[in-house]
Specification:
single chain, 167 residues, alpha+beta, endopeptidase fold (from Nostoc punctiforme), 6-stranded antiparallel β-sheet, 5 helices, globular
């Protein structure tokens, strides 16, 4: 039995190498058609995690900046302006509004969410607020007029949806 297993292991390794090499030449999927989705498509898990860290760091670097409706930085932000600014740091362009970002993002489950994903507060089919997921149930966001960019716990969990751009 062990002799048979030893003989099949090199064949399995060769097959794995062949599949890994041929996957480099596969045409992009239709889901990667939009520039925002294409930016992360095909990225290794490690690269995707690093990109998520860069997005979170960009949002965190705006801590304390004032909220201003329609602002996309660097002096002031609204919610979608902050998420767009953070994603631009990772060379990803997002739609301007929270609802536009919600429509363009690929939905992910709460369990699969990782730092750098977007968190949307949704009522019906409309996203009215967006934030950058920092992990551990917290987000970086520009909350409302009179407030400033800050880290906060996710509130209203029934209204929250998670979204991702790319892999």
């Amino acid at each position: 039995m062990t002799a048979r297993l030893r003989l099949s292991l090199p064949k399995f390794a060769a097959l794995w190498v062949f599949l890994a090499l041929t996957s480099l030449f596969v045409a992009p999927s239709p889901a990667a058609a939009s520039p925002a989705r294409a930016s992360l498509a095909g990225a290794s898990p490690a690269a995707a995690l690093l990109r998520g860290e860069r997005i979170v760091a960009a949002a965190r670097s705006q801590h304390g900046k004032p909220y201003r409706r329609g602002a996309s930085g660097p002096a002031a932000f609204d919610c979608s302006g902050l998420s767009g600014y953070a994603y631009r740091a990772a060379h990803i362009k997002l739609p301007r509004t929270a609802n536009g970002q919600f429509r363009a993002a690929h939905p992910v489950s709460r369990a699969a969410a990782r730092p750098g994903d977007l968190v949307f507060w949704v009522q019906g089919r409309h996203a009215y607020h967006v934030a950058v997921y920092a992990g551990a149930g917290r987000v970086w966001h520009a909350p409302k007029p009179g407030d400033r960019v800050r880290l906060a716990a996710i509130w209203s969990p029934r209204e929250v949806r998670f979204g991702r751009f790319g892999a």
